[in-house]
Write a structure and sequence with these properties.
This protein is an alpha+beta fold and 335 residues long. It has 12 helices and 7 strands. The chain folds into 3 domains: 185 residues, GAF domain (Beta-Lactamase, 2-Layer Sandwich); 67 residues; 63 residues, Winged helix-like DNA-binding domain superfamily/Winged helix DNA-binding domain (Arc Repressor Mutant, subunit A), CATH 1.10.10. The longest helix has 32 residues. This is LuxR C-terminal-related transcriptional regulator.
Length: 335
């Protein structure tokens, strides 16, 4: 083991290890492309480790442009923003050097040249978001505080680690999408996009379970200074349990409702339902339908078009399957 690795591994306190492990779980189990949850996981970890007034993530989209998709200032979520930066500011320093920035390096001169919350900034910590393979600087992660000397060495090392973990998950998303291209032609096959209430509830239940595991993994020292934090953590765990039970009840309700197929043929007129049944059971063509019903073939085409539209299908051959799911006793004609 190298000295640097040994120093890094031995430098974290037990509490920091607990917080970072919880963040690691949350980052690992996020759905592909769910960057907001990943940003929130990094912010939650930093807020657990130290006092944070402002937290934001920035991504470079050009040599002088920084996109800020996630910013929380004084516990308020701010709208996403795009900013231009000059050659002497903080954004250019991170992009060009790829080095960590701390307030004490220049008494906050670079930090004061950029975005400001309006409060005095007396401590700043910024780490670069670096591509793990190419080394390209993709963006930055920043925390600010109005109290001097808030961010110590352990905080800096923890944030460096969070930055690397975040970028790793980002690159996995991109590699997956670029290599496979599974959902470009068939986006409806993307299982991360819920199709109905049942899938949405399953997704929410899975996310809640991850949150519950992360909360239970956090262990706060039994000290008088952390009484309020332990109480808040216990309440968060209890809330998670209550919500889990409510979602379980909702899942059961949805399952019961879905056991009875919805009659989507209810919107058809009497004539349209008659035509749909003749197509499904007897397999009649438009000409045969016109003869059977004593109407013109043109009128039949109008009715068939209405049937397809109301059933939400585009092919005539799908009519027997729709009819069969709602009226299983019908003897369907093979198409």
């Amino acid at each position: 083991m190298t000295d640097a690795r040994a120093h890094s591994a031995e430098s974290f306190s037990p509490f920091a290890v607990s917080v970072l492990r919880a963040a690691d779980r949350r980052l690992r189990f996020c759905d592909r492309g769910d960057m907001i949850t990943r940003y929130a996981a990094c912010r939650a970890a930093m807020c657990a480790l130290t006092q944070v007034d402002t937290f934001y993530i920035g991504h470079y989209i050009g040599p002088t442009t920084l996109s800020i998709p996630y910013c929380v200032d004084n516990k308020q979520f701010l709208s996403a923003d795009v900013q231009q930066f000059g050659p002497n500011g903080l954004s250019e320093y991170i992009r060009s050097t790829g080095q960590q920035y701390r307030y004490k390096q220049d008494d906050g001169r670079r930090a004061r040249m950029g975005w400001s919350s309006g409060r005095p900034i007396l401590d700043v910590l910024v780490v670069p978001l670096r591509h793990p393979e190419s080394g390209e600087i993709l963006g930055m992660m920043c925390v600010e505080n109005s109290t001097a000397d808030t961010f110590d060495g352990e905080t800096a090392r923890a944030m460096e680690w969070l930055g690397r973990a975040l970028v790793w998950e980002m690159t996995q998303d991109r590699s997956f999408a670029d290599d496979l291209g599974l959902y470009e032609l068939y986006p409806e096959l993307d299982s991360t996009q819920p199709r109905d209430e049942a899938e949405m509830l399953r997704t929410l239940t899975a996310e809640l379970e991850r949150m519950r595991l992360a909360l239970h993994a956090i262990e706060l020292p039994d000290t008088a200074e952390l009484v309020e934090q332990r109480s808040a953590l216990d309440e968060a765990r209890a809330s998670g349990e209550r919500l889990h039970l409510r979602l379980a009840d909702a899942m059961q309700t949805v399952r019961i409702e879905q056991t009875t197929p919805k009659d989507i043929t209810a919107g058809l007129t009497t004539r349209e339902l008659e035509i749909a049944m003749l197509i499904a059971v007897d397999g009649l063509s438009n000409r045969q339908l016109a003869t059977r019903l004593f109407i013109s073939e043109k009128t039949v085409k109008v009715h068939v078009g209405n049937v397809l539209r109301k059933l939400g299908i585009s092919q005539r051959s799908a009519i027997p399957y729709i009819i069969g799911s709602i009226h299983p006793s019908a003897t369907l004609k093979e198409q």
